[in-house]
Amino acid sequence: MASVKKLPDNLTELEKVGMRPLLQTSRWFALALVGLAGVVVWWMYAYSVQLRGGLAVTGMRDVVMWGLYIVNFVFFIGISHAGTLISAILRVTGAGWRTPITRMAEVITVVALMIGALMPITDLGHPERALNLVIFGRYQSPILWDFLSITTYLTGSLIYLYLPMIPDMAMLRDKLPLTAPAWRRQLYTMLAAGWRGTPTQKRRLERAISIMAVLIIPIAVSVHTVVSWIFSMTVRPGWNSTIFGPYFVVGAIFSGIASILIAMVIFRRIYRLEAYITKKHFVYLGYLMLALGVIYMYFTAAEYLTVAYKLADNDRQLLTLLFTGSQAPWFWAFGVGGTLVPVLIVAYPRTRTIPGILVAAILVNIGMWLKRFVIVVPSLQVPLMPFDFGRYQPTWVEWSVTAGAFAGFILIFALFSKVFPIISVWEVAEQEEKAARTASRLVPAPGPAAPREGSDV
Amino acid sequence: MFRLKGFPFAPALLGGLALLFPMGSVRAEGIPAVAAEKSFTIEVSRNGFTVVEGPVHQMKGETHLSINQGDQVTMTLVYADTDYGKNNPHRIALSKFGLDSGLLDADNPRRTITFVARRDGDSFFRCVKVCEGHKRLQAGKLMVQAVAGAVAAQPTRLALDVPRDVERGEPAALAAVLTDATGRPVQGEPVRFLAKTNFFLEGWMVLGEVTTDSSGVAVLTFRPAQSGDVNLMVAFPGDSAYRASEASAAITEVGVSRLYRTEGGIQLPGTGVQGTRFGAAPGFRIPPFAAIALTFIILAIWSTYFFVVSQVYRISQERE
Amino acid sequence: MENHEGISRRGFLKALAGAGTLLAIPAVPGLLTPLFRRPGPGEAVAYRDEAAAAKGTAASKVAGSKLRQWAMVVDLRKCDGCVTIDEPPQCTQGCIKEHFVPEGQKWVQVYQRELAGGGSAFMPTPCYQCENAPCVNVCPVGATYHNEEGIVLINHDRCIGCRFCMAACPYQRRFFNWGTPELPPEARFASYSPEYPVPARRGTVIKCMFCAHRAAAGKLPACVEACPMNALYFGDLEEDAATNGVEVVPLSAFLSENNGYRYKEELGTRPRVWYIPGHGETFDRLARDERPLGQSKW
Hints:
The structure holds 3 protein chains of 3 kinds.
Chain A: H1 13-23, H2 27-53, H3 68-92, H4 99-123, H5 132-135, H6 142-162, H7 166-175, H8 182-192, H9 199-232, H10 244-270, H11 279-310, H12 313-323, H13 328-347, H14 354-381, H15 396-419, H16 425-439
Helix pairs in contact in A: 2-15, 3-4, 3-9, 3-10, 3-14, 4-6, 4-10, 4-15, 6-9, 7-8, 9-10, 10-11, 10-14, 11-13, 12-13, 13-14
Chain B: E1 37-45, E2 48-53, E3 57-59, E4 62-68, E5 72-79, E6 90-94, E7 99-104, E8 110-116, E9 121-127, E10 140-145, E11 156-161, E12 165-167, E13 172-180, E14 190-197, E15 202-211, E16 217-222, E17 229-236, E18 245-254, H1 288-317
Parallel strand pairs in B: 1-5, 4-10, 12-18
Antiparallel strand pairs in B: 1-2, 3-4, 5-8, 6-7, 6-9, 9-10, 11-13, 13-16, 14-15, 14-17, 17-18
Chain C: H1 9-18, H2 24-32, E1 36-37, H3 50-55, E2 61-62, E3 66-67, E4 70-75, H4 90-99, E5 109-114, E6 120-125, H5 134-138, E7 144-146, E8 152-154, H6 164-168, E9 175-176, E10 205-206, H7 212-216, H8 222-226, E11 232-236, E12 241-243, E13 248-250, H9 251-257, E14 273-276
Parallel strand pairs in C: 4-14
Antiparallel strand pairs in C: 2-3, 4-11, 5-6, 7-8, 9-10, 11-12, 12-13
């Protein structure tokens, strides 16, 4: 037990569950954090090598001039849809079961956006000139569309993450044990913004959240649409497609739900949230993932069939590469392992268990990363002039940056969960009250097992 | 006599034509040639040409007549489709010499073409009317063997008629008239049009080559794109029958409008989308209305953010 | 046979010694010789605005505010890929020499294309300077742009190195300086401008710029000068003329009469480079000639 702090007695069970991870950290968790931090340091080192040697240290060359960085960029922007979109859609549609998972989803959005936005900057030949996008930005360029929509989305997501945290911040400010460090108290006091839960404050907060929930949905859709337009505003085979906007949006939500499911499994386990994140949540989100998986398969079929039927010369080269050529393992791993198998796992009742859904979610995320790879790289390999296929072999620098990006994503997420409650305590409580009122009976309030002190692994 | 060196002759436009004109060859002059008389009688039917009289060289369905330069040729064409049942009119032309039999049919069963074969080289006689057996009537060839000094090359005169002021970029008809010493038009000869240029190199740019018609006139449509005065020249390179000649003229271009323009984008009525102009940022332009709409949307989103954050501020400012 | 600047003497001798089939090489330029002479310094390119020239500016505005609109025509009938003279493509070599092109990049690259019935044709490809240029459209910072004469240039002080332009270019005519380019010392003394991007800089995109610096000085592009076969014509759509350094042709008529086409015309990029179909037949290269392209040297 890394640190055992007595939780105050004046807390409800729910508040204890929300507060415990902030005060108690297991040795394994701490070790994991150190390990992740090590990978992040390695990422910094790899990037410093790239800064010294230029992009020559990567495997990218004149023909295949984009690689893993852009793949990661699209992937992270994709999983950023997890969150805000899901939590906003569920909030707008009034799905009460959402409350224990919205915070997680919103954090995924914010962190994935921050990591994702670093990727194109890593990819720049002159990262120190990134500000030129502001100084000399041209509205005509899809990159500027991206720049605008991602900054707008990140800002909106931060606001949307923060708003429902205000009552929880007030709870922490008021109920944090006296043994807690002073910086925590100061932080919570500041973020609580004078919240006392008066009716006026509640009304204001409710209005602000509602506005953001509605506003964030079109912004989220626009973000992945313009990310896809980076590709489809060119005449390359495989990119020159009209359905890329919706195709990418669906793929983003698909991989976003898978990311939430993985996060749910992990946090449920290590923070003992079994009482609040139940199988119902996994099954509901699993159904959502299933539906989006089927839509994604439909888009995939529409995309490739319309191209394969006409078989323009460059498209034939691309499809040969994807279906039977050197990229075929990745393509089929995505097509079968990344969409078909997870959909079947969730569809089949006997595998629709929490472990089954976790496997499906992991497969979806691996599959969607591979999908972004087979979108970006093979299209660039196709010869546009009379020459051979381009080659691309990522170097250790690119793999290190990729690993570091994932590690950084997990690290920030884990650190967040150590500073802020990972479930929205007040919303869950509100939802329980509401359920109690409507059903005139108590939904199981405490967890099935009595929480064991100081063990969160 | 026909030494072409120094003559402005650039096979720029039709490089292959250079082979037609043996340049730099020197011919003896002044030796009187013995002109022979050659007569042919040719039956013309839907089955092709049949030479019934005269030296013939028939091969694989083609009729080749071989004569010498300077020969006096009489070509008698006989309508031979009398067994066809209905009238099958033909018209035989010898385009290189600008000659034409006129209608050859049941009513005009006999036509005669008479000419002096002044120019050497191969040429064709063929039916220029769509008739039964038309394809088989495309296979007549007249081969004129060059004979040194057989023909005394006639001097020619070339005149060039051009409009004086030409709007820059607007088509202007340049007309050249080629006549022989007696003032008769020379038909079927190539006339080359040239313009003085100073484009990286100084010299004469070949604008094109036009064959003179029956009035000896060759017309070239020219869109002047230089500025100021344009010096023009027409040149007839000459051959064994006619001597070379040339003429020159100048036109003045007026108007300074920009000639080369390119269109870009789709013209949406009322949106202010204009054609592409070259400048700092051409190509795809966001039309003003779209830019305004986009700016409005972004402003609206960010003002909403501001409003939401102001709610938080007011929450924090609330007193009990 | 006079010695032309644009024709490598060594190439000529080799060609002559090589085969009697190449008689056409001396014949064609020889015929054209009397027609043209090179203007002396100062009297070059008549369209230059005299006032601007006097002020010493590089603007090549024509008198009466008319502008050059540069274009290029590649007569593939004359392009034998320099295989008949047993040399690497001389246009590429001339370009490399003129711009100290970093190793591995071929701003003017000669591709070998398959012909319908087997055999191959060569295709020199400079940057096509598209009028609807995908690269210019997508640049997020306006680092790549059309100048007033229709040449697509890159401002290497502004380029952020995102390589979106390379992804957008359907002709693969853009190159990236992945590492610090290894340049000869004399390249260091060149004063950089978008019209003459020397020395090349790390982390930026670079490409053929139609030798904008040479055109401003009244000289033909380096590749045009270097082509021993005079297959490359540099032209002006505004004056409707083009020259390969030996003859001047009326550009539009030249294209029409010789079936000029643009590569991937259906893309709508409106390139400023046209091709005249052929496979080097002017110099008696047979379509099924199997001699490979020479290796370029940097």
